[in-house]
Design goal:
Blueprint: H1 2-17, E1 18-19, E2 22-23, E3 25-29, E4 32-35, H2 36-46, H3 55-74, H4 81-93, H5 105-121, H6 126-139, E5 142-144, E6 150-152, E7 156-158
Antiparallel strand pairs: 1-2, 3-4, 3-5, 6-7
Helix pairs in contact: 2-3, 2-5, 3-5, 3-6, 4-5
Length: 171
């Protein structure tokens, strides 16, 4: 019995710590970790610029970013860090509380993804490219930390439902 309790505790610690025994990992994509710190940093830096920024949404973008930016580069519409930083600073310039800043690598990755995705959608062959991109994303080996949600349909991160948590009621 004691072995079951200890074993159960080890499983719980592993699940809570991250992905595949990698503490601090929000996700693993083809063996490469996306850290919880990167997700938190990008979420914090992007929140003043974009409405509705959530850690799960940022993580989903970071999971898809490498495939999306690779396809964009192959199609001749790649986006570099400077272009991403310039775009973020252009948005920030319109918001007095934000202004111009230096952004972290994960934040630049999110913006590169957003820009690349928009550019890919504008190409004449967007439908075929979209199909290829979906196939590449589906082919990735992705593990998501339960803290951030679960991977549905091989590409979308959905919120984890904890039946023991009860939503507060208004009133």
């Amino acid at each position: 019995m004691r072995g079951l309790v200890v074993g159960g505790a080890l499983v719980a610690v592993t699940v809570l710590a991250g992905c595949s025994g990698q503490p601090g990992a929000a996700a693993l994509v083809d063996g490469t970790a996306i850290s919880v710190a990167d997700v938190q940093t990008a979420t914090t830096e992007l929140a003043p610029l974009y409405q509705g920024v959530t850690p799960a949404a940022v993580l989903q973008v970071l999971v898809h970013e490498r495939a999306t930016t690779a396809v964009a580069s192959e199609q001749g519409v790649g986006v570099n860090d400077q272009q991403a930083a310039d775009a973020l600073n252009a948005i920030g310039a319109q918001l007095p509380a934000v202004g111009e800043r230096t952004y972290s690598a994960p934040t630049l990755a999110v913006e590169r993804y957003l820009m690349a995705n928009t550019l890919l959608q504008g190409l004449e062959t967007a439908d075929a490219i979209g199909t290829e991109l979906q196939e590449r994303i589906a082919a990735q080996k992705v593990e998501i930390s339960p803290r951030f949600g679960t991977l549905a349909d091989g590409a979308t991160i959905t919120d984890t439902v904890h039946p023991w948590l009860v939503a507060p009621t208004a009133g």
